[in-house]
Amino acid sequence: MHSMKIKVYKKAGCPWAAAVIGFLNELTVPYKIINVTTYPGYAQEVERKSGKWISPTLDIDGTILADASVEDVAAALEKGGVVI
Q1: Is 84 part of a structural domain of the chain?
Q2: Which of 36, 43, 56, 73 is within CB 3.0–4.6 Å of 17 for a Cys-Cys bond?
């Protein structure tokens, strides 16, 4: 098992975030969801990290993926040693 720290910043109802979360669940990769709709202060955190606010944005061990697709997440996980 790997020890990657993954945060998923998402807006409520975002279909792209739902796809990424479904992918992570399928792989049984642990992650933390940060809902910026419920906690708007996290939107500022995303902007500070990525320079923009787009859902979903992921922080994978300090690597920021803004407007991340399932393919982007898969590539980042593989780079971190997760077998897809």
Answers
A1: no
A2: 56
Q: What is the largest CA-CA distance in the chain?
A: 34
Residue 1 lies in a domain: no
> Is pTM beyond 0.85 here?
yes
Structural domains of the chain, count:
1
Strand-by-strand arrangement of the 6-10 sheet: 32-35, 6-10, 57-60, 63-66
Per-residue pLDDT of 29-49, as tens digits, reads: 999 999 998 888 888 888 898
Residue 58 has pLDDT above 80, yes or no: yes
Distances (CA, A) of 70 to 18, 25, 45, 55, 65: 10, 12, 22, 13, 11
Query: What's the residue count for the chain?
Result: 84
